[in-house]
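Q: Got a minute? One more chain.
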Amino acid sequence: MKTAKEILKNKNKEIWSIAPDNTVFEALKVMGEKEIGALMVMDQKSKVYGIISERDYARKIILKGKTSAETKVSEIMTPMDKMFTVKPETTVEDCMVLITAKRIRHVPVFEDDKFVGLISIGDVVKSIISEKDMLIEHLSNYIAGKYI
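A: Always. Here it is, folded:
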């Protein structure tokens, strides 16, 4: 069974983040440039304050008539105490259960109190499909008599 740690091994090691006092516009600019849907909200010393996603922007800026150029990230982010997180040893299946049950798209991975990476729903689905494809291939080879 694959784990969150194994998913992170196959991802880009770069951690994209933004400071809480930056504007939402600046966060959106980084997300657009990096082609990602969420950023960790962190300071220069890697202290995590929360997470901001495209969904936060859609629901807390556009729908409420605010502007991204004037609103600080800290005003719309999901704060640390409200984030759903996993540990490196959490299985991919358990990550999927959390993502599905809580209707979230990004799950931060923490080892003790240290942030180690961010897993998206796409990462989890890709991992599950890969595992299922491998199982199908092994079963096909077994049925075809390739294992003796």
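A: The CA atoms of residues 43 and 84 lie 20 Å apart.
Q: Perfect, thanks.
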